[in-house]
Amino acid sequence: MSSARELFIEQMGLFSQTEGAPRIAGQILGYLIVEGAPRTLTQMTQALKISKGSASTNARLLEQRGLVHRVSALGQRQDGFAAVDEPGLHTLSIMAERFRASADAIETIAVDFPDDEAAARGRVENLARFHRESAQFLDEWRARLCGRRKPAHNIYKEE
Amino acid sequence: MSSARELFIEQMGLFSQTEGAPRIAGQILGYLIVEGAPRTLTQMTQALKISKGSASTNARLLEQRGLVHRVSALGQRQDGFAAVDEPGLHTLSIMAERFRASADAIETIAVDFPDDEAAARGRVENLARFHRESAQFLDEWRARLCGRRKPAHNIYKEE
DNA sequence: CGGTACGTTCAATACAGACTGAACGAATTG
DNA sequence: CAATTCGTTCAGTCTGTATTGAACGTACCG
After folding, report:
1. Per CATH, the architecture of B4-83 is what?
2. Which strand C bases fall within 7 angstroms of a protein CB?
3. Is-contact B69 B84, C-beta < 8 A?
4. Gap between the Cα atoms of A56 and B32, Å rounded
5. B112–A7: do the CB atoms touch at under 8 Å?
6. Lowest mean pLDDT among A131-140, B117-126, B146-155
7. Residues B22-37: pLDDT tens digits?
8. How far is the alpha carbon of B124 from chain A, nearest alpha carbon, in Å?
């Protein structure tokens, strides 16, 4: 039987997997959320039973996606990684960015449809419009959530 | 050099892949969108150069996800598959459902956190709340898009 | 009834990509 | 300056899964 923290970390790994990202990336994020304070790559390798290479690669992937930030610890040789305050907000950014990229790609293709396929072009343009509007809505909602967050209530106290 | 329709179909395959679904599923959806009218499995195998098994499996996957519907053609032995009017709306449903499932799973785990990890439990509950609200938001927005759709303007005329 | 065309299923294969472990450079330490 | 201790990178392996091709059951047809 596993502890709640282990279950949570494993669950986060599964989520990550279903979204096309590596399982370990989700596990690292879950680990950092539970810990609530910066942790080193070495700590990840021990807690998650993964290789140093995987820890480095996936931690950097999370950093690049804005879900994790690296703290250059004072007087510390090792890098510290910590989950950002609201990982969900960055998840929304990522989704919005994906929609926007899709919209761009589809629109670019749509203009090349010949005139005798005007109906098809219309359907493709319709799909592109949906993707673009989706991106915009996600951004707007993220902004709304951002504003709603109580500024004084910082969840990550320890650090 | 490829035609616009081929580029679009390939692009849809790539999108599908990045979202964890089979590439062929996206290609079929793209093909049906471009065609704008029901197509048979045999037509898919020829147009997309795929096996009959793949066509059957992936078409059924799309049907199950609500992105494609099967038309039992009159006096026709073969099944016809056609993309739904607004594939995007069903994409939103799928995303909302995923968020809801995540919220459920995370909440279930959260309650099992021991009291000496109350801070961690709070962070996990916070994540669950975000997922639940995301699901709700997506549903609301889908409903709004649904209402905005012009009823008379049916894109798929031929059939 | 054979014969054909269809959709589904499943074992076998192919393939993409996650993961590892070792090698490397850089920075620190004694 | 040797010896650690980092983080990164990369070739190689391994695992999951997409895809195939053939076999099967069914319905229609002549």
Report:
1. Orthogonal Bundle (1.10)
2. 5-11, 17-23, 28-29
3. yes
4. 42
5. yes
6. B146-155
7. 999 999 999 999 999 9
8. 7
